[in-house]
Fold this sequence. Notes:
Number of helices: 1
Number of strands: 19
Largest sheet: 8 strands, antiparallel
CATH architecture: Sandwich
Amino acid sequence: MPQTIRTTPARVLRGFLLAAVALIGTAVSILHAQQPAVPDWAIPGSDTHQQVAPPPDFHRPSRIFNTPIGIFDGQADVGAALVPGRASFDAATGRYTIDSAGYNIWYTRDEFRYLWKRMSGDVSLAADISYPDPSGYGDRKAVLVIRQSLDDDAKEAIVALHGLGMIHLAVRPERDVRIKDTEYRIGGRGRPGGASPDSLVTVMARRIGIEKRGDAFALFVSLEGEPMHQFGPPITLHLDEPFYVGIGFCSHLPVTSDTAVLSNVVLENAAGRVR
């Protein structure tokens, strides 16, 4: 006589749980298999790892989207970071929210999400900058960039506010040439947040700007809401017309996206209008 096997609710539940665990394990395995490989040179610097420049002649074609966003003509994942970026614009508040991974905006090539407009002549560009996640990587950069093309190694002038507060004015004078810059780290004593009145507390700029006047590019800053004023000397760079002008962000992490918010954006086709 055939033996009857009784199936209890507990046994059914156990079977479902085992099947679910197996499916989750399979999904995780697939996810790991699909995770983009991060080259050693793209891993951020740490106590145990030194970040170095990309190998000579290493480039990725940028992903370009010709859909307007706010005052900009389009967007691009310059350098095609391993995790695609995205951006949105809130017309009611004038806020641009940019999500991007990317190993860096530095060395001989860049990886960042870029909102761009093609322009000629003199330019004034400025924006308030904030980072919603205070724990992001310290060298992440929100940037205002004027560049020759959307290629990852384009000639360009950059002003940036880093996650830990450093401000820089940088230039790549020719294609596939390493960037050089002037850096500003600003702090004060007796300010809120210090362990004592003698502690040096970082001052995070509220607003940064870039001005193109002919071949001269200058950095403008408002630290605490005062009128924008020039920081340091300009750099010199010649760009053929038309060129690209816009805002962007890079998490400084090859496969981890972060977020920057740029608001109160001013973009004028003239010098002397940074405000």
